[in-house]
Amino acid sequence: MSELASESSAMNAWNDLVSAALLGTQRRRIDPAGLPAAVRPLVAGAPEEALLRSAAVLANYRRAGHVPARPEARLPVAERDGRPLVPAAARRRLLRIPADLLGEWLQAVHEKGMRVPPEHLPALAEAARTRPALRPPLAAVAGPAGSWLGERNPAWAFLVSVAAEADRVWAYGGPLQRREWLDRTLSADPAAARTALSSTWAREPAGDRAEFLAVVGRHLDPADEPFLENALDDRAGQVRESAAELLARLPGSRLAGRMRERAGRLVQRDGERLAVALPDPDDAALLRDTGGVRHPAELLRRIVGATPLNHWAQDGTPEQVLARPVTGCDPGVLRAGWTLAAGRQRDAAWGAAVLAAADPASIDGTVTEMVRLLPAALHRPAVGVLAAKLSPHAMASAVTLLPQPWSPELGAAVLDWLAAHPGNRGLGGAARAAGRTVPTGCLRHPIATAPLPVGAAPWWRELATTLTFRREMHEELDT
After folding, report:
1. What is the pLDDT of residues 307-346, one digit of tens each?
2. In terms of C-beta density within 10 A (0-12 exposed, 13-18 middle, 19 or more buried), how is residue 371 classed?
3. Which residue segment(s) compose the domain that 44 sits in?
4. Is 303 left (phi over 0), alpha (psi -120 to 50) or beta?
5. Among 285, 311, 404, 409, which is disulfide-ready with 379 (CB 3.0 to 4.6 Å)?
Protein backbone atom coordinates (compact mmCIF):
# COMPACT_ATOMS: atom_id res chain seq x y z
CA MET A 1 0.00 0.00 0.00
CA SER A 2 2.83 2.41 0.86
CA GLU A 3 4.30 1.91 -2.63
CA LEU A 4 0.95 2.75 -4.23
CA ALA A 5 0.55 5.82 -2.01
CA SER A 6 4.04 7.00 -2.91
CA GLU A 7 3.34 6.57 -6.63
CA SER A 8 0.04 8.46 -6.28
CA SER A 9 1.76 11.27 -4.36
CA ALA A 10 4.39 11.63 -7.06
CA MET A 11 1.70 11.75 -9.77
CA ASN A 12 -0.30 14.42 -7.89
CA ALA A 13 2.84 16.48 -7.31
CA TRP A 14 3.74 16.26 -11.00
CA ASN A 15 0.27 17.46 -11.98
CA ASP A 16 0.66 20.41 -9.58
CA LEU A 17 3.96 21.35 -11.22
CA VAL A 18 2.39 21.21 -14.67
CA SER A 19 -0.43 23.51 -13.52
CA ALA A 20 2.08 25.98 -12.06
CA ALA A 21 4.08 25.98 -15.28
CA LEU A 22 0.97 26.69 -17.34
CA LEU A 23 -0.50 29.38 -15.07
CA GLY A 24 2.76 30.98 -13.88
CA THR A 25 4.31 30.95 -10.42
CA GLN A 26 2.67 34.25 -9.50
CA ARG A 27 -0.77 32.69 -9.88
CA ARG A 28 0.08 29.18 -8.73
CA ARG A 29 2.74 28.68 -6.03
CA ILE A 30 4.59 25.45 -5.46
CA ASP A 31 3.62 23.82 -2.17
CA PRO A 32 6.63 21.80 -0.96
CA ALA A 33 4.29 19.86 1.30
CA GLY A 34 2.73 18.31 -1.78
CA LEU A 35 6.05 16.86 -2.94
CA PRO A 36 7.23 13.43 -1.89
CA ALA A 37 9.20 13.59 1.36
CA ALA A 38 12.42 12.51 -0.35
CA VAL A 39 12.19 15.45 -2.77
CA ARG A 40 11.27 18.31 -0.42
CA PRO A 41 14.78 19.00 0.99
CA LEU A 42 16.11 19.44 -2.57
CA VAL A 43 13.68 22.23 -3.47
CA ALA A 44 14.52 25.76 -2.38
CA GLY A 45 14.96 29.30 -3.75
CA ALA A 46 12.75 31.69 -5.67
CA PRO A 47 9.42 30.35 -7.02
CA GLU A 48 10.74 30.14 -10.59
CA GLU A 49 13.84 28.25 -9.48
CA ALA A 50 11.76 26.06 -7.19
CA LEU A 51 9.50 25.10 -10.11
CA LEU A 52 12.36 24.15 -12.42
CA ARG A 53 14.32 22.37 -9.70
CA SER A 54 11.22 20.50 -8.56
CA ALA A 55 10.44 19.40 -12.11
CA ALA A 56 14.00 18.18 -12.68
CA VAL A 57 14.18 16.28 -9.41
CA LEU A 58 10.67 14.87 -9.58
CA ALA A 59 11.14 13.67 -13.17
CA ASN A 60 14.11 11.58 -12.08
CA TYR A 61 12.26 10.51 -8.93
CA ARG A 62 9.35 9.16 -11.00
CA ARG A 63 11.63 7.50 -13.51
CA ALA A 64 13.66 5.83 -10.79
CA GLY A 65 10.53 4.32 -9.35
CA HIS A 66 9.77 2.24 -12.42
CA VAL A 67 10.84 -1.37 -12.57
CA PRO A 68 12.32 -2.27 -15.96
CA ALA A 69 9.80 -4.07 -18.12
CA ARG A 70 10.37 -7.74 -18.53
CA PRO A 71 10.80 -8.88 -22.10
CA GLU A 72 7.86 -10.78 -23.49
CA ALA A 73 8.25 -14.20 -24.95
CA ARG A 74 10.57 -14.16 -27.94
CA LEU A 75 8.85 -13.72 -31.26
CA PRO A 76 8.94 -16.68 -33.61
CA VAL A 77 11.45 -16.48 -36.42
CA ALA A 78 10.19 -16.25 -39.99
CA GLU A 79 10.51 -19.41 -42.02
CA ARG A 80 13.59 -19.70 -44.17
CA ASP A 81 13.28 -18.46 -47.75
CA GLY A 82 15.53 -20.45 -50.05
CA ARG A 83 15.28 -18.09 -53.00
CA PRO A 84 18.34 -15.98 -53.83
CA LEU A 85 18.42 -12.28 -53.10
CA VAL A 86 18.32 -9.90 -56.05
CA PRO A 87 21.83 -8.94 -57.22
CA ALA A 88 23.64 -6.03 -55.57
CA ALA A 89 23.03 -3.71 -58.54
CA ALA A 90 19.30 -4.38 -58.36
CA ARG A 91 19.34 -3.67 -54.62
CA ARG A 92 20.94 -0.31 -55.26
CA ARG A 93 18.43 0.51 -57.98
CA LEU A 94 15.54 -0.29 -55.65
CA LEU A 95 16.51 2.75 -53.57
CA ARG A 96 15.93 5.10 -56.51
CA ILE A 97 13.28 3.41 -58.60
CA PRO A 98 10.34 5.66 -59.58
CA ALA A 99 7.06 4.76 -57.91
CA ASP A 100 5.33 4.04 -61.22
CA LEU A 101 7.97 1.45 -62.20
CA LEU A 102 8.05 -0.35 -58.87
CA GLY A 103 5.31 -2.81 -59.81
CA GLU A 104 7.16 -3.81 -62.99
CA TRP A 105 10.37 -4.34 -61.02
CA LEU A 106 8.63 -6.48 -58.38
CA GLN A 107 6.96 -8.59 -61.07
CA ALA A 108 10.31 -9.11 -62.82
CA VAL A 109 11.91 -10.16 -59.52
CA HIS A 110 9.10 -12.67 -58.99
CA GLU A 111 9.46 -14.09 -62.51
CA LYS A 112 13.20 -14.56 -61.90
CA GLY A 113 12.49 -16.55 -58.73
CA MET A 114 14.28 -14.07 -56.47
CA ARG A 115 13.44 -12.17 -53.30
CA VAL A 116 14.07 -8.67 -52.01
CA PRO A 117 16.28 -7.98 -48.98
CA PRO A 118 14.14 -8.18 -45.83
CA GLU A 119 15.33 -4.78 -44.60
CA HIS A 120 13.48 -3.19 -47.54
CA LEU A 121 10.18 -4.95 -46.87
CA PRO A 122 8.71 -2.42 -44.39
CA ALA A 123 9.15 0.47 -46.84
CA LEU A 124 7.76 -1.61 -49.71
CA ALA A 125 4.82 -2.75 -47.58
CA GLU A 126 4.04 0.84 -46.69
CA ALA A 127 4.08 1.77 -50.38
CA ALA A 128 1.75 -1.13 -51.20
CA ARG A 129 -0.60 -0.14 -48.37
CA THR A 130 -1.79 2.85 -50.41
CA ARG A 131 -1.25 1.27 -53.86
CA PRO A 132 -3.18 -2.01 -54.05
CA ALA A 133 -1.74 -2.89 -57.47
CA LEU A 134 1.64 -3.47 -55.80
CA ARG A 135 0.31 -6.01 -53.32
CA PRO A 136 0.28 -9.23 -55.37
CA PRO A 137 3.84 -8.88 -56.75
CA LEU A 138 5.16 -7.68 -53.39
CA ALA A 139 3.57 -10.56 -51.50
CA ALA A 140 5.14 -12.94 -54.03
CA VAL A 141 8.70 -11.63 -53.61
CA ALA A 142 8.39 -11.02 -49.86
CA GLY A 143 7.74 -14.67 -49.09
CA PRO A 144 7.86 -15.91 -45.48
CA ALA A 145 9.42 -12.69 -44.24
CA GLY A 146 6.49 -10.76 -45.67
CA SER A 147 3.98 -13.09 -44.01
CA TRP A 148 5.86 -12.62 -40.72
CA LEU A 149 5.51 -8.84 -41.02
CA GLY A 150 1.88 -9.03 -42.10
CA GLU A 151 0.97 -11.12 -39.07
CA ARG A 152 2.33 -8.40 -36.77
CA ASN A 153 1.07 -5.28 -38.50
CA PRO A 154 -2.62 -5.27 -39.50
CA ALA A 155 -1.92 -2.53 -42.07
CA TRP A 156 0.30 -5.01 -43.94
CA ALA A 157 -2.02 -7.99 -43.66
CA PHE A 158 -2.01 -8.31 -47.46
CA LEU A 159 1.48 -9.84 -47.13
CA VAL A 160 0.14 -12.83 -45.21
CA SER A 161 -0.09 -16.06 -47.13
CA VAL A 162 -3.44 -16.40 -48.89
CA ALA A 163 -3.75 -19.99 -47.69
CA ALA A 164 -3.28 -18.94 -44.07
CA GLU A 165 -6.07 -16.36 -44.22
CA ALA A 166 -8.47 -17.89 -46.74
CA ASP A 167 -10.98 -19.12 -44.17
CA ARG A 168 -11.24 -15.75 -42.42
CA VAL A 169 -10.94 -13.02 -45.02
CA TRP A 170 -14.41 -13.26 -46.57
CA ALA A 171 -16.11 -13.40 -43.17
CA TYR A 172 -14.04 -10.86 -41.27
CA GLY A 173 -11.90 -8.86 -43.72
CA GLY A 174 -12.34 -5.23 -44.73
CA PRO A 175 -13.85 -4.25 -48.11
CA LEU A 176 -10.50 -4.16 -49.93
CA GLN A 177 -9.32 -7.47 -48.45
CA ARG A 178 -12.60 -9.11 -49.40
CA ARG A 179 -12.40 -7.82 -52.97
CA GLU A 180 -8.86 -9.17 -53.25
CA TRP A 181 -10.00 -12.51 -51.82
CA LEU A 182 -12.88 -12.67 -54.30
CA ASP A 183 -10.53 -11.83 -57.17
CA ARG A 184 -8.10 -14.62 -56.22
CA THR A 185 -10.80 -17.18 -55.48
CA LEU A 186 -12.65 -16.55 -58.73
CA SER A 187 -9.41 -17.56 -60.45
CA ALA A 188 -8.66 -20.57 -58.26
CA ASP A 189 -12.12 -21.89 -57.32
CA PRO A 190 -14.93 -20.03 -59.12
CA ALA A 191 -17.71 -22.16 -57.63
CA ALA A 192 -16.56 -21.44 -54.07
CA ALA A 193 -16.30 -17.74 -54.83
CA ARG A 194 -19.82 -17.61 -56.27
CA THR A 195 -21.20 -19.48 -53.26
CA ALA A 196 -19.51 -17.09 -50.84
CA LEU A 197 -20.73 -14.02 -52.71
CA SER A 198 -24.30 -15.28 -52.94
CA SER A 199 -24.39 -16.14 -49.24
CA THR A 200 -23.73 -12.57 -48.11
CA TRP A 201 -25.08 -10.59 -51.06
CA ALA A 202 -28.31 -9.41 -49.44
CA ARG A 203 -26.41 -8.03 -46.42
CA GLU A 204 -23.74 -6.16 -48.36
CA PRO A 205 -23.92 -2.33 -48.65
CA ALA A 206 -24.83 -1.05 -52.12
CA GLY A 207 -21.34 0.34 -52.75
CA ASP A 208 -19.73 -2.99 -51.87
CA ARG A 209 -22.18 -4.88 -54.09
CA ALA A 210 -21.18 -2.70 -57.04
CA GLU A 211 -17.47 -3.20 -56.28
CA PHE A 212 -17.95 -6.97 -56.08
CA LEU A 213 -19.64 -6.97 -59.48
CA ALA A 214 -16.61 -5.17 -60.90
CA VAL A 215 -14.48 -8.06 -59.62
CA VAL A 216 -16.89 -10.60 -61.11
CA GLY A 217 -16.52 -8.78 -64.42
CA ARG A 218 -12.80 -9.59 -64.52
CA HIS A 219 -13.64 -13.31 -64.42
CA LEU A 220 -16.98 -13.27 -66.23
CA ASP A 221 -18.36 -16.69 -67.08
CA PRO A 222 -21.71 -17.94 -68.42
CA ALA A 223 -22.22 -19.55 -65.01
CA ASP A 224 -22.60 -16.04 -63.58
CA GLU A 225 -25.77 -15.38 -65.58
CA PRO A 226 -28.38 -16.48 -62.98
CA PHE A 227 -26.76 -14.35 -60.29
CA LEU A 228 -26.49 -11.33 -62.59
CA GLU A 229 -30.06 -11.75 -63.86
CA ASN A 230 -31.27 -11.47 -60.26
CA ALA A 231 -29.07 -8.41 -59.76
CA LEU A 232 -31.06 -6.61 -62.47
CA ASP A 233 -33.74 -6.19 -59.78
CA ASP A 234 -31.34 -4.84 -57.15
CA ARG A 235 -32.56 -1.84 -55.16
CA ALA A 236 -29.40 0.15 -56.05
CA GLY A 237 -29.26 1.71 -59.51
CA GLN A 238 -25.48 1.38 -59.73
CA VAL A 239 -25.75 -2.36 -59.14
CA ARG A 240 -28.54 -2.78 -61.71
CA GLU A 241 -26.51 -0.93 -64.33
CA SER A 242 -23.38 -2.98 -63.60
CA ALA A 243 -25.34 -6.23 -63.85
CA ALA A 244 -26.80 -5.18 -67.21
CA GLU A 245 -23.31 -4.29 -68.46
CA LEU A 246 -21.93 -7.71 -67.51
CA LEU A 247 -24.86 -9.62 -68.99
CA ALA A 248 -24.37 -7.70 -72.22
CA ARG A 249 -20.88 -9.19 -72.41
CA LEU A 250 -22.39 -12.69 -72.52
CA PRO A 251 -23.74 -13.08 -76.10
CA GLY A 252 -25.60 -16.25 -75.10
CA SER A 253 -27.38 -14.72 -72.12
CA ARG A 254 -31.13 -14.24 -71.86
CA LEU A 255 -30.55 -10.48 -71.79
CA ALA A 256 -28.67 -10.70 -75.10
CA GLY A 257 -31.61 -12.60 -76.55
CA ARG A 258 -34.04 -9.94 -75.39
CA MET A 259 -31.84 -7.22 -76.87
CA ARG A 260 -31.59 -9.08 -80.19
CA GLU A 261 -35.38 -9.17 -80.38
CA ARG A 262 -35.61 -5.44 -79.63
CA ALA A 263 -32.91 -4.58 -82.16
CA GLY A 264 -34.80 -6.57 -84.80
CA ARG A 265 -37.91 -4.48 -84.19
CA LEU A 266 -36.19 -1.10 -83.92
CA VAL A 267 -33.54 -1.33 -86.67
CA GLN A 268 -34.79 -2.68 -89.99
CA ARG A 269 -33.42 -2.80 -93.51
CA ASP A 270 -35.03 -0.36 -95.94
CA GLY A 271 -33.30 -0.93 -99.27
CA GLU A 272 -29.72 0.17 -98.76
CA ARG A 273 -30.62 2.09 -95.61
CA LEU A 274 -31.21 1.15 -92.00
CA ALA A 275 -34.49 2.58 -90.75
CA VAL A 276 -34.53 3.19 -87.00
CA ALA A 277 -37.40 3.63 -84.56
CA LEU A 278 -36.38 4.92 -81.14
CA PRO A 279 -37.35 2.76 -78.15
CA ASP A 280 -40.08 3.63 -75.68
CA PRO A 281 -38.44 5.19 -72.58
CA ASP A 282 -41.39 4.02 -70.44
CA ASP A 283 -40.96 0.33 -71.29
CA ALA A 284 -40.49 -1.23 -67.83
CA ALA A 285 -38.88 -4.41 -69.15
CA LEU A 286 -36.41 -2.39 -71.22
CA LEU A 287 -35.56 -0.16 -68.26
CA ARG A 288 -34.80 -3.28 -66.21
CA ASP A 289 -32.37 -4.50 -68.87
CA THR A 290 -30.61 -1.16 -69.24
CA GLY A 291 -30.19 -0.08 -65.64
CA GLY A 292 -33.04 2.46 -65.66
CA VAL A 293 -31.81 4.88 -68.35
CA ARG A 294 -34.70 6.78 -69.97
CA HIS A 295 -33.14 8.78 -72.84
CA PRO A 296 -34.32 7.16 -76.12
CA ALA A 297 -31.02 7.57 -77.99
CA GLU A 298 -29.03 6.17 -75.07
CA LEU A 299 -31.48 3.28 -74.77
CA LEU A 300 -30.92 2.51 -78.47
CA ARG A 301 -27.14 2.61 -78.01
CA ARG A 302 -27.43 0.14 -75.14
CA ILE A 303 -29.75 -2.15 -77.05
CA VAL A 304 -27.37 -2.31 -80.02
CA GLY A 305 -24.38 -2.60 -77.69
CA ALA A 306 -25.89 -5.68 -76.04
CA THR A 307 -27.11 -7.37 -79.24
CA PRO A 308 -24.99 -10.29 -80.51
CA LEU A 309 -23.03 -9.02 -83.50
CA ASN A 310 -24.01 -11.98 -85.67
CA HIS A 311 -27.51 -10.48 -85.72
CA TRP A 312 -26.28 -7.92 -88.26
CA ALA A 313 -24.80 -10.47 -90.67
CA GLN A 314 -28.09 -10.38 -92.60
CA ASP A 315 -27.27 -6.77 -93.47
CA GLY A 316 -23.75 -7.43 -94.79
CA THR A 317 -20.16 -7.48 -93.59
CA PRO A 318 -19.18 -5.23 -90.67
CA GLU A 319 -17.75 -2.72 -93.15
CA GLN A 320 -20.98 -2.72 -95.17
CA VAL A 321 -23.20 -2.39 -92.10
CA LEU A 322 -21.16 0.53 -90.76
CA ALA A 323 -21.33 2.28 -94.14
CA ARG A 324 -25.11 2.04 -94.59
CA PRO A 325 -27.08 5.30 -94.43
CA VAL A 326 -29.32 5.60 -91.38
CA THR A 327 -32.73 7.22 -91.02
CA GLY A 328 -34.70 7.86 -87.87
CA CYS A 329 -31.78 8.74 -85.59
CA ASP A 330 -28.25 10.10 -85.54
CA PRO A 331 -26.06 7.49 -87.30
CA GLY A 332 -23.49 7.99 -84.55
CA VAL A 333 -25.84 6.33 -82.06
CA LEU A 334 -25.82 3.05 -84.00
CA ARG A 335 -22.07 3.24 -84.59
CA ALA A 336 -21.48 3.83 -80.89
CA GLY A 337 -23.61 0.77 -80.13
CA TRP A 338 -21.70 -1.41 -82.59
CA THR A 339 -18.41 -0.16 -81.17
CA LEU A 340 -19.57 -1.06 -77.68
CA ALA A 341 -20.69 -4.51 -78.83
CA ALA A 342 -17.39 -5.18 -80.62
CA GLY A 343 -15.45 -4.43 -77.46
CA ARG A 344 -17.72 -6.51 -75.26
CA GLN A 345 -17.80 -9.50 -77.59
CA ARG A 346 -14.11 -9.32 -78.55
CA ASP A 347 -14.90 -9.49 -82.27
CA ALA A 348 -11.75 -8.77 -84.32
CA ALA A 349 -13.57 -8.30 -87.65
CA TRP A 350 -15.88 -5.71 -86.17
CA GLY A 351 -12.98 -4.11 -84.30
CA ALA A 352 -11.02 -3.57 -87.50
CA ALA A 353 -14.10 -2.21 -89.27
CA VAL A 354 -14.87 0.20 -86.42
CA LEU A 355 -11.32 1.56 -86.50
CA ALA A 356 -11.40 2.02 -90.27
CA ALA A 357 -14.80 3.76 -90.23
CA ALA A 358 -14.31 5.87 -87.11
CA ASP A 359 -15.00 9.57 -87.39
CA PRO A 360 -11.93 11.42 -86.02
CA ALA A 361 -14.17 13.48 -83.74
CA SER A 362 -15.61 10.33 -82.15
CA ILE A 363 -12.37 8.49 -81.41
CA ASP A 364 -12.30 7.83 -77.68
CA GLY A 365 -11.44 4.99 -75.33
CA THR A 366 -14.15 2.71 -76.72
CA VAL A 367 -12.70 3.11 -80.21
CA THR A 368 -9.06 2.64 -79.22
CA GLU A 369 -10.20 -0.45 -77.31
CA MET A 370 -10.65 -2.04 -80.73
CA VAL A 371 -6.88 -2.41 -80.99
CA ARG A 372 -7.04 -5.05 -78.25
CA LEU A 373 -9.31 -7.16 -80.45
CA LEU A 374 -6.89 -7.33 -83.36
CA PRO A 375 -4.14 -9.92 -83.79
CA ALA A 376 -0.69 -8.54 -82.99
CA ALA A 377 0.24 -8.49 -86.66
CA LEU A 378 -2.43 -5.82 -87.24
CA HIS A 379 -1.39 -3.53 -84.39
CA ARG A 380 1.03 -1.50 -86.50
CA PRO A 381 -1.53 -0.95 -89.28
CA ALA A 382 -4.07 0.05 -86.60
CA VAL A 383 -1.70 2.73 -85.30
CA GLY A 384 -1.27 3.89 -88.89
CA VAL A 385 -5.05 4.15 -89.32
CA LEU A 386 -5.37 6.26 -86.17
CA ALA A 387 -2.41 8.46 -87.09
CA ALA A 388 -3.86 9.09 -90.55
CA LYS A 389 -7.21 10.17 -89.09
CA LEU A 390 -5.93 12.35 -86.26
CA SER A 391 -3.75 15.40 -85.82
CA PRO A 392 -0.52 14.75 -83.85
CA HIS A 393 -2.07 16.34 -80.76
CA ALA A 394 -5.23 14.19 -81.01
CA MET A 395 -3.12 11.12 -81.76
CA ALA A 396 -1.12 11.77 -78.60
CA SER A 397 -4.36 11.65 -76.62
CA ALA A 398 -5.37 8.43 -78.40
CA VAL A 399 -2.04 6.82 -77.48
CA THR A 400 -2.79 7.34 -73.78
CA LEU A 401 -6.11 5.50 -74.29
CA LEU A 402 -4.66 2.43 -76.01
CA PRO A 403 -5.55 -0.70 -74.02
CA GLN A 404 -2.82 -2.36 -72.00
CA PRO A 405 -0.75 -4.47 -72.03
CA TRP A 406 0.83 -3.46 -75.32
CA SER A 407 2.18 -6.04 -77.72
CA PRO A 408 5.75 -5.59 -79.04
CA GLU A 409 4.24 -4.66 -82.40
CA LEU A 410 2.04 -1.99 -80.85
CA GLY A 411 4.87 -0.63 -78.72
CA ALA A 412 7.24 -0.40 -81.68
CA ALA A 413 4.58 1.30 -83.82
CA VAL A 414 3.90 3.95 -81.17
CA LEU A 415 7.63 4.61 -80.66
CA ASP A 416 8.12 4.89 -84.41
CA TRP A 417 5.27 7.40 -84.59
CA LEU A 418 6.83 9.45 -81.79
CA ALA A 419 10.22 9.29 -83.50
CA ALA A 420 8.66 10.80 -86.62
CA HIS A 421 7.74 13.97 -84.65
CA PRO A 422 10.90 14.79 -82.66
CA GLY A 423 10.29 18.52 -82.43
CA ASN A 424 6.58 18.46 -81.53
CA ARG A 425 6.34 19.66 -77.93
CA GLY A 426 2.72 18.57 -77.57
CA LEU A 427 3.47 14.84 -77.42
CA GLY A 428 4.73 14.66 -73.85
CA GLY A 429 1.72 12.75 -72.52
CA ALA A 430 2.00 10.10 -75.22
CA ALA A 431 5.76 9.82 -74.66
CA ARG A 432 5.31 9.31 -70.92
CA ALA A 433 2.64 6.66 -71.52
CA ALA A 434 4.83 4.87 -74.07
CA GLY A 435 7.92 4.98 -71.87
CA ARG A 436 6.16 3.08 -69.10
CA THR A 437 3.98 0.80 -71.23
CA VAL A 438 6.03 -0.57 -74.12
CA PRO A 439 7.12 -4.17 -73.46
CA THR A 440 10.72 -5.09 -72.73
CA GLY A 441 11.34 -6.03 -76.35
CA CYS A 442 11.03 -2.34 -77.29
CA LEU A 443 13.51 -0.95 -74.75
CA ARG A 444 16.36 -0.79 -77.29
CA HIS A 445 14.40 1.34 -79.72
CA PRO A 446 16.54 3.97 -81.50
CA ILE A 447 14.90 6.68 -79.38
CA ALA A 448 16.85 5.22 -76.45
CA THR A 449 20.06 4.26 -78.23
CA ALA A 450 20.62 6.87 -80.97
CA PRO A 451 21.98 10.38 -80.36
CA LEU A 452 19.48 13.05 -79.36
CA PRO A 453 18.16 14.74 -82.55
CA VAL A 454 18.89 18.41 -83.04
CA GLY A 455 15.88 20.44 -81.91
CA ALA A 456 14.23 17.50 -80.14
CA ALA A 457 11.41 18.39 -77.75
CA PRO A 458 12.05 17.82 -74.01
CA TRP A 459 9.92 14.68 -73.96
CA TRP A 460 12.44 12.89 -76.20
CA ARG A 461 15.20 12.98 -73.58
CA GLU A 462 12.74 11.97 -70.85
CA LEU A 463 11.49 9.05 -72.95
CA ALA A 464 15.04 7.92 -73.76
CA THR A 465 15.94 8.07 -70.07
CA THR A 466 12.90 6.01 -69.08
CA LEU A 467 13.53 3.34 -71.71
CA THR A 468 17.19 3.09 -70.68
CA PHE A 469 16.31 2.92 -66.99
CA ARG A 470 13.84 0.11 -67.60
CA ARG A 471 16.29 -1.81 -69.79
CA GLU A 472 19.02 -1.62 -67.14
CA MET A 473 16.49 -2.54 -64.47
CA HIS A 474 15.76 -5.82 -66.22
CA GLU A 475 19.37 -6.52 -67.21
CA GLU A 476 20.53 -6.23 -63.60
CA LEU A 477 18.29 -9.12 -62.61
CA ASP A 478 20.14 -11.34 -65.09
CA THR A 479 23.60 -10.72 -63.61
Report:
1. 999 999 999 999 999 999 999 999 999 999 999 999 999 9
2. buried
3. 2-64
4. alpha
5. 409
